Amino acid sequence: MRSVFGALAIVGLCGIVPAAATPGVDERYVSDPANGIALYGYDPVAYFTDGRAVPGQREHEAEWNGAAWRFASAANMAAFLSAPEVYAPRFGGYDPAAVANGAPAAGHPLIFAVRGEALYLFRSPGERDAFRDPRPAEKAWPRVEAQLAR
């Protein structure tokens, strides 16, 4: 029964990012199509420091690598800007399973895993739970990345 409630909670949380607002497959980073903010405005540093998705604030916004990123605090923004490769999601926030199969499919900012020093976003809890090895996605990423706009 507990797992049913957990699954319902995830489904409910996923509703926060509208399914109809799926980013196109031409974006370098998974972004909100309404405003272009990377990770739908979630703070990439908070995944590491808080272990959860935390909405960023408009007053803590920075540009990096062609995308606008939001942060929950000035400290998180400074941490990101000092080491963006550490905090930005692997594969631009695209689901590693899809990337491994040669296709960019947007990960959801509320369905994530931090493994070591890497943030991964997934399309579904099942994809996240099945994720074991990033190497197939790493191998395919250059081809998938070439499909995306810069």
From TrEMBL:
Keywords: Signal
Coiled coil (residue ranges): none
Residues annotated as domain YHS: 45-89
Classification via InterPro entries: YHS_dom
Pfam families, per the entry: YHS
Signal peptide: 1-21
Signal found in the keyword field: yes
UniProt keyword annotation of Protease present: no
Protein name: YHS domain-containing protein
